[in-house]
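Internal ticket - ligand job 348, nicotinamide-adenine-dinucleotide:
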Amino acid sequence: MTSAPSPLALVPFVSVENMMKLVHHIGLEKFLTDLTDRIEVDYWRWQDFDKTARIASHSKEGVIELMPTSDGEVYGFKYVNGHPKNTRSGLQTVTAFGLLADVNNGYPVLLSEMTLLTALRTAAASAMAARHLAPDHATTMAMIGNGAQSEFQTLAMKAVIGIQTVRLYDTDSKATEKCARNLAGHGLQVISCSSPEEAIQGAEIITTCTADKQYATILTDNMVGSGVHINAIGGDCPGKTELHRDILMRSDIFVEYAPQTRVEGEIQQLDTDHPVTELWQVVTGEKPGRTNPRQITLFDSVGFAIEDFSALCYVRDQLKSTGYFQDLDMLADPDDPRDLFGMLHRAR
Ligand SMILES: NC(=O)c1ccc[n+]([C@@H]2O[C@H](COP(=O)([O-])OP(=O)(O)OC[C@H]3O[C@@H](n4cnc5c(N)ncnc54)[C@H](O)[C@@H]3O)[C@@H](O)[C@H]2O)c1
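stdout (structure tokens):
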């Protein structure tokens, strides 16, 4: 006879359904703002974390990655994929899940969906970067690539930076229609554009968030005027970039973790010693962010493990008060810890 699992066997699990309930309970824009602040707090204590470039398994169609880190008390990792052709067969480009564990005993303390949470944390990390790098009082953003991440990116820039207008462009007009429909009623002026040139008109922030497994040129040098902040999200794998190299040469470049970004980011197109600033140095005041209104700043985002760690910790902190989780019977818990076999044997 099998008995009910003991409390030691149980790990809180946040399903997609519960993540959606949690986001609505907190409010999407508040969730994005809280997450931005939470990531920034962890960037402040950058030195506390184990840092390693993510471990990527590349294939012809995409990549599967593991993203681990630890602050010495809590360990976390995310599993995430990137498969640009997936949407053609009804699958998403990016899916993810993640886990937190207690460093002292190695026991998992949270398992969570992270497909939604990745979109939220990526948008929050972009907003945090923009807080330090975008021109003061920016009100207009161009959003190039109107897929799964795009509404999250837009609403984080609204909530954190205060943008009032978004100019949308995607090679697939259906994606733009979807994005415009989803953003209606969120207090933004939404303008659908038919070319990237049109989309960037008047934009102080240009976000590129496209998916294609190639060296793409979403923006060319002549399109980018002085003073803008470029938030480049989609170039995040070897051989997968979005910006023409000449733009990089005119920009001050900010990255999450240089050893990872030099392999995966826009800067894979540059010499390996090209100067870049890690964002935590700007957050802590060690290095300047934007220093003048004519400067082109570029956040060469690829996504870093500490941002996922921050997001998972934020979610974990909300669970007790909201109850939006289930207990999963995930850890074997024999009465005698050394009698794992006996537990199996008695369950026949
Ligand atoms: N930096 C990060 O932390 C991070 C996190 C998540 C996703 N990403 C990356 O962001 C990208 C977008 O992710 P998603 O989930 O929104 O993907 P998605 O497939 O849902 O959307 C991508 C959109 O880009 C459009 N597109 C492709 N080529 C284009 C072009 N040349 N010009 C304009 N639009 C173009 C497609 O039509 C599609 O609508 C992916 O490359 C993904 O790997 C990065």
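Auto-summary: The longest helix spans residues 115-133. The radius of gyration is 21 Å.
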